[in-house]
Amino acid sequence: MPKKALFVIDTQAELVSISSTAMPYGARICEVGTKILNRARTQPAKELDIIMVQHSDDPEDPNATLLRGNEAWELALPPREDAENERVVHKTTGDTFESNPTLANDLKARGVTTIVAFGVQSECCVRATSRGAISAGFEVVLLQGAHSTYHNQETGKSAEEIESEIEEELQAIGVQVIPWDKYEF
């Protein structure tokens, strides 16, 4: 039976839950993400892997804020410690697969054929990881309403506009975009 992997991308404190730095819809991502995880956790472990993706900035970068071990870096939606099918995958690039060259083969060896993704930032790590999953040969589902980003001050685009643009871009390469509350694991 084909298996799925739920990728919870970069739901880190600085981005979604620390009020002074969180993106405008960080609270929505936490709320919706909790609902998605609650539904996902009712699935048999043998049918669904749950992967919390956690980004780490380069400590040599003077602008780095997501530094391993600091409060900003902590996951707002962490894995359950007693769950055999939940784990953290660390990354240092936008694409989780690029940062973890054996990840695709490891998932395929476990029977995973579909990556279901949500998290932040839409135009950065969500886009890059979705593209990486497609390139690695997985079917990919992006959960609409469960990914977001910051407003872009340079272009004047709102987070909602960026979310929509990324969905259209990813659909054009074969990613299915399904509203989070309609998706059935």
Strand order of the largest sheet: 3-2-1-4-5-6
Rg, rounded, reads 15 Å
What structural category characterises the helix and strand content?
Answer: alpha/beta
Q: How helix-rich are the residues, as a percent range?
A: 25-40%
Task: Sum up the overall morphology in one term.
Answer: globular
Please report which band the strand proportion falls in: under 5%, 5-15%, 15-25%, 25-35%, 35-45% or over 45%. Answer: 15-25%
Largest sheet: 6 strands, parallel
Termini separation: 13 Å
Tally of alpha and pi helices: 6
Task: Work out the number of β strands.
Answer: 6
CATH class: Alpha Beta
Which homologous superfamily in CATH is the superfamily?
Isochorismatase-like
What does this structure look like?
With 185 residues, the chain is an alpha/beta fold. The chain has one domain (3-179): Isochorismatase-like (Rossmann fold, 3-Layer(aba) Sandwich), CATH 3.40.50.850. It is 31% helix and 24% strand. The chain contains six helices and six strands; from the N terminus they run βααββααβαβαβ. The protein has helices spanning 13-16, 26-40, 96-99, 103-109, 122-135, 159-172, and strands spanning 3-9, 48-55, 86-91, 112-120, 139-148, 176-179. α5 (122-135) runs parallel beside α6. The chain is globular, with a radius of gyration of 15 Å. The model has no long low-confidence stretch (mean pLDDT 96).
